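Handout, section B. The chain below has 146 residues.
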Amino acid sequence: MIYLLRHGDAEPDQGSGDAARRLTDKGEAQALAAGLAMAKLGMNVDTCLASPRVRALETANLACRSLGAEVEVVDAIGYDDYDSLDLAAGRGDTLIVGHEPDMSMEVARLTGANIKMKKGGLAAIRGSQLQALLRPAELITIATQG
């Protein structure tokens, strides 16, 4: 299984460059909820790969608190074209945390589904099938239910 998580809501560039943008409070809540919801839904993660851009790395670290996975930075996720299947090969169930338009393009490439990932949104893919597409509001609802 490959999980694609778009980073949470981030602050605007304040002169430090795009790569340095941090999560807002809303983005932190989205990231925490994504991890908790994934855990509640039984979405096991063996490996978490994240873009080196600050907002994606923060999202990965917060989400993985509930998933028990270590975060590995992969430069290609933030700056180059990449293939999720190649990145996940031999790693078990893999969570990839990155950016738009890459996340939506990967869903389309792997499944043929034409979607647009929301900030803090999650796609679950098995083989060539899109198993789930969850918006941040849905993840928060799942995370906060008893």
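Note. DSSP finds six helices and six strands in the chain. Compare this with the example in section A.
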